[in-house]
Amino acid sequence: MANERLRALEEVEKEIATILQCAGNIVLELSKDKHNASLLDRQLVQFQGSVNRVESELSGQIRYLTQVATGQPHEGSTYSARKDCQMALNRAEYAKVKLGELGRTCEVMLEQQPPDW
Amino acid sequence: MATQRVLPQSKESLLQNYNKRLKDDIRSILDNFTEIVKTAKIEDETQVSRATQAEQDHYEMHVRAANIVRAGESLMKLVSDLKQFLILNDFPSVNDAISLQNQQLRSLQDECDKKLTSLRDEIAIDLFELEEEYYSSSYSQWDSTDLPLCEAYRRRDSWASPGSSCSSTQGDREDVEGPPSQETNSQHHLNGHGTSSIEKP
């Protein structure tokens, strides 16, 4: 859910860049002797659409934050679960080390023992 | 209709400031762009010469274009501030992220412990058989007072039934407690707190 809102804000940033791009294209087209009316119309529609989308999206985000913000710091954490998981992984690693030692000991004993013919 | 929330003054004023910045920047972009398009219109009659008017229009367009760019950058800064505010104060999504992370970590821990437990059970079975084989062979150096694990288990099972006439001497009890305590120590060692390996007497 948090990622969706952050991605929406990243889309808003792209829309702002589109606004400036469209404004520049329109002014560039107006500077020419012969204007391309269809291009001007397309750019203008895109410009207005982007402005409206940016305003509505940012207003929505601010309205949502007004509803959920409490002013208090968040005190949740994943420390205990992370610590328990880390200890479980340590247990597994320790068992692996001990089994490795046991395996090496068995190999050494088998090498030292003369074969029974 | 949104419910009225009593926010701390700093948060409320911050959000109002965000709203004001948004409105001002959007208004600035639209007004300046409109004025640029109006200025682009060529007028036949002007109060000053054409060259002067052209120079004035040129300068005005420059300033208005710079205003549009400034408003765009201010909007980008507003989006950045909103992202930061969202990360810090959006408690529903923070709670969801924390619970999801906890769930993943706990499932990993349970899987790890389950595998370790099954490994322990398999090794215990193999150890039981190996000890039985070793202590019944001619290579073992144990004396009659030192009980192997298999014998200790057999005696413990016979003690479990009441009125059994199993050995009750102190020496035997110590020997019986020796191998089971080694197994108990092995269980403790699985938790990673042991400092030495299990050594056979």
UniProtKB/TrEMBL annotation, chain A:
Record-given protein name: Mediator of RNA polymerase II transcription subunit 11
Q: Which keywords label this protein?
A: Activator, Nucleus, Transcription, Transcription regulation
Q: How does it assemble?
A: Component of the Mediator complex.
Function according to Swiss-Prot or TrEMBL: Component of the Mediator complex, a coactivator involved in the regulated transcription of nearly all RNA polymerase II-dependent genes. Mediator functions as a bridge to convey information from gene-specific regulatory proteins to the basal RNA polymerase II transcription machinery. Mediator is recruited to promoters by direct interactions with regulatory proteins and serves as a scaffold for the assembly of a functional pre-initiation complex with RNA polymerase II and the general transcription factors.
Give the subcellular location. Nucleus
Q: Name one GO cellular component term.
A: mediator complex
In terms of InterPro entries, this protein maps to: Mediator_Med11
Alphabetized PANTHER family for the sequence: MEDIATOR OF RNA POLYMERASE II TRANSCRIPTION SUBUNIT 11 (PTHR22890)
Stated family: Belongs to the Mediator complex subunit 11 family.
What is the native source organism of this protein?
Sparus aurata
A single Gene Ontology molecular function, please? transcription coregulator activity
Pfam short name (any one): Med11
Which BP terms does GO give this entry? regulation of transcription by RNA polymerase II
Superkingdom of origin organism: Eukaryota
From TrEMBL, chain B:
Which keywords does this chain's UniProt record carry?
A: Nucleus, Transcription, Transcription regulation
Subcellular localization, as worded in the UniProt entry: Nucleus
Q: What is its main location?
A: nucleus
Q: What is the protein named?
A: Mediator of RNA polymerase II transcription subunit 22
Where is region (Disordered) located? 157-201
What Pfam families does the database record attribute to this sequence? Med22
Query: What is the stated purpose of this protein?
Result: Component of the Mediator complex, a coactivator involved in the regulated transcription of nearly all RNA polymerase II-dependent genes. Mediator functions as a bridge to convey information from gene-specific regulatory proteins to the basal RNA polymerase II transcription machinery. Mediator is recruited to promoters by direct interactions with regulatory proteins and serves as a scaffold for the assembly of a functional preinitiation complex with RNA polymerase II and the general transcription factors.
Superkingdom, natural source: Eukaryota
User: Which GO annotations describe the biological process of this protein?
Assistant: regulation of transcription by RNA polymerase II
Q: Which GO terms describe its cellular component?
A: mediator complex
Q: Where is the composition biased (Polar residues)?
A: 161-170, 181-201
Q: Where are the transmembrane segments?
A: none
Tell me a Gene Ontology molecular-function term this record carries: transcription coregulator activity
